[in-house]
Amino acid sequence: MTPPSTPDLSLALHAGSQTVAAADVVPLLRRYGLLPNLLKELVIDQAVAAVTLTPEQTSQAVEQFLQVNQISTPEQYQSFLAQRGLSEADLAFLAERAQKLQQHKLDTWEPKVESYFLQRKSNLDRVLYSLIRTHEAGLAQEIFFRIQDDGQPFADLARQYSEGQEAQTGGLIGPVELSVPHPALARLLSISQPGQLWPPTRVGEWFVVVRLEKFLPARLNEATRQRLMDELFNTWLLEQVQAAVQANCAQPDSSSL
């Protein structure tokens, strides 16, 4: 049996006049906060190791990688490799890896999407609403009555009195997911009926007059399905990387750095 080879510690990186020994690379990654990025890529490598692609999938993966990176000519191809220090084999590896990762997400996380969607739905629902905000409680009360009792257009009053950027759109905001507005405002909107105008409400430093214009319930379409798969995967990935960082940072640093 051939004995295992000893790592060549003389290998080095060169940057200008500086030479970095291979043994010092990990301590440097740690020092500059880059170690989590490397560990993340290693965790992904392990996750997709068992995924296999057909020759057709491999070819499609490379084509998609070139499209995503806007590579359409031989010159752009060579420039892309040179700027990143990649070989053609490296590029093919990255392309296949991206396809394998998508397949891994489908195999592992897609079956959990429907139950996760039900948990997340209240925050994924979208609303279109009109808002006027001011620091003056009395002015907010006056604006409310001018809309409710006098029938003055919300948009006109928003352009005149609202102190936020929504004044430029006549108070109209959205559609946005219910996770976007201030929690107190989101609670009001979540229990509103379209066209419902609320009396002035204190939200943080503001007094707001708000009216729900339209409620758009979230639907589990393909875009939402992909987004939720990505969320589930990224949550798992973050946990794995944090554990790996803690394990590596617990090791003594024997370098001279």
Detailed description of the structure:
- The protein has 257 residues and is of the alpha+beta class.
- Among the domains are: 45-104, no CATH class; 124-216, Roll (Chitinase A, domain 3), CATH 3.10.50.
- It contains 10 helices and 6 strands.
- The protein has helices at residues 25-31, 35-48, 55-68, 74-84, 88-108, 113-124, 137-148, 154-161, 183-190, 222-249; strands spanning 12-15, 18-21, 126-134, 172-177, 197-203, 206-216.
- The strands form 2 sheets. A 4-stranded antiparallel beta sheet has the order 4-3-6-5, with helices on both faces. A two-stranded antiparallel sheet has the order 1-2.
- The model is unreliable at 1-7 (pLDDT under 50).
State the main characteristics.
elongated, alpha+beta, disordered N terminus, 53% helix, Chitinase A, domain 3, 10 helices, 257 residues, 4-stranded antiparallel β-sheet
Helix content: 40-55%
> Any idea of the CATH topology of the domain at 124-216?
Chitinase A, domain 3
Strand order of the largest sheet: 4-3-6-5
The CA-CA distance between the termini, in Å, is: 38 Å
In CATH, what is the class of the domain at 124-216? Alpha Beta
Helix-strand makeup class: alpha+beta
Q: What kind of oligomer do you see?
A: single chain
Q: Rounded to an integer, what's the Rg over CA atoms?
A: 27 Å
Order of helices and strands: EEHHHHHHEHHEHEEH
Number of strands: 6
Please describe the biggest sheet, giving its number of strands, its sense, and whether it closes into a barrel. 4 strands, antiparallel
DSSP helical segment count: 10
Binned strand content: 15-25%
What's the overall geometry? elongated
